[in-house]
Amino acid sequence: MNARGGMELVAALIGLSLGVLTPQMYTLVILVAIVTSVITPGLLSWSLSEVEERPSDAERLERERLLKRLEIKAQGAKLLVLSGGGPHSSLATHMAAALANHHDASITIFRAYAAGANRRNDDFNKEFAQLEEVAKFGGAAHLHQRTATGETIIDAVAQETQRGYDAIFVGASELAGKEVIGGDMLRQLVNVARAPVVIVRGGRAKAPFMRLLTPITGASFSRLGATVAMQYAQVFKSRVTALYVHEGALLSFPSRADMEDGEEFVEEVCKLGDELGVSIETLLGTGRKPESVILKAAHNGDYDLLVMGVLFRSSEQRIYFGPRVREVLRGARCSVALVVPPHHSVPES
């Protein structure tokens, strides 16, 4: 049952170098290692083909399959929060704390400086102390403080994001006359980040949020958003509603096949919620404009937080996630968290 591979190759190589084995004997050992490694999986599957799978095994395999779909895991999570002193830094830290609620997870609060800039560490120390309290309220135990300098601020941030973080949290930088979620700095961050970026913007309700709405589709970026929503709800005992929107004419009715697709996506999220101990309510909607359906659901349900997985669309001047996300951002009165997968990991379709 054990394919002869690793140790035999090492022993054969040492034996050949010492002259104990001839080239012919060395070749024979290598062939045995290759053949047994290739045939063992097939033989093992064949020998167990008649063995009935126990219910506990099926449940375990299903649980493992579901948990593998958690693209950001709390256990061992290494999270980065960008400190800019803006009004949404605390909310970004609060969201990160929900995903760092594990004894071996950590959050790094980071401040970037441009070369030649006046580094006012006293201000950052004060802000770090405030954000540390926010993180501890969410259950995060391990916080670190870091600063770095680059030719520009985004250069320093880009270098920091390459340190193997599992996710990056940043507050929206709402500027007069700019896009509703942020400006050039966020655009550059999303463009260079190698990990998911969670951009948060505050609304009417104060954290912690008790009612969450997460629109879902079959796309991986949508599932990523739902993952963040469920992990947040797991920590703060929030209620999550998974909304599937079928795009169709205002007076038309979706086909049975369309609704079955929606039910399949929702069911998958509900199963994952069960594994995390989170109760998921489901909502199926249809409309000519999915963004209008999302906004109507958010307003009618009086939700505190809208969590959306979105795709970044390349733009030279501003951060942009498409016209539908833009309309949702403009119309949403609740807090919003946009979960953006790494720019080069998901095709823009």
Major sheet size, sense and barrel closure: 10 strands, mixed
Instruction: Count the DSSP helices.
Output: 11
**Fraction of residues in helix:** 40-55%
What is the average per-residue confidence, as pLDDT, rounded to a whole number? 81
Task: Identify the CATH architecture of the largest domain.
Answer: 3-Layer(aba) Sandwich
Rg is: 25 Å
List the uncertain runs: none
- The SSE string, one letter per element, is HHHEHEHEHEHEEHEHEHEHE
Termini separation comes to 46 Å
Spatial shape: globular
What fraction of residues sit in β-strands?
Answer: 15-25%
How many β strands by DSSP? 10
List the strand order in the largest sheet: 3-2-1-4-5-10-9-6-7-8
**Structural class based on helices, strands and sheet pairing:** alpha/beta
Q: Tell me the number of structural domains.
A: 2
Using the coordinates above, name the CATH class of the largest domain. Alpha Beta
Task: Write the CATH fold name of the largest domain.
Answer: Rossmann fold
Describe the secondary-structure layout:
Layout: H1 6-18, H2 23-47, H3 55-68, E1 78-82, H4 89-99, E2 106-114, H5 121-137, E3 143-150, H6 153-161, E4 167-171, H7 184-192, E5 197-201, E6 211-216, H8 220-236, E7 239-247, H9 256-276, E8 280-287, H10 290-300, E9 305-309, H11 323-331, E10 335-340
Parallel strand pairs: 1-2, 1-4, 2-3, 4-5, 6-7, 6-9, 7-8, 9-10
Antiparallel strand pairs: 5-10
Helix pairs in contact: 1-2, 4-5, 6-7, 10-11
Task: Describe this protein's structure.
The chain has 349 residues and is an alpha/beta fold. The chain folds into two domains: 6-51; 78-340, Rossmann fold. Helix content is 45%, strand content 19%. It contains eleven helices and ten strands. It has helices at residues 6-18, 23-47, 55-68, 89-99, 121-137, 153-161, 184-192, 220-236, 256-276, 290-300, 323-331, and strands spanning 78-82, 106-114, 143-150, 167-171, 197-201, 211-216, 239-247, 280-287, 305-309, 335-340. A ten-stranded mixed β-sheet has the order 3-2-1-4-5-10-9-6-7-8, sandwiched between helices. Helix 1 runs antiparallel to helix 2 and helix 4 (89-99) crosses helix 5. The radius of gyration is 25 Å and the shape is globular. The relative contact order is 0.12.
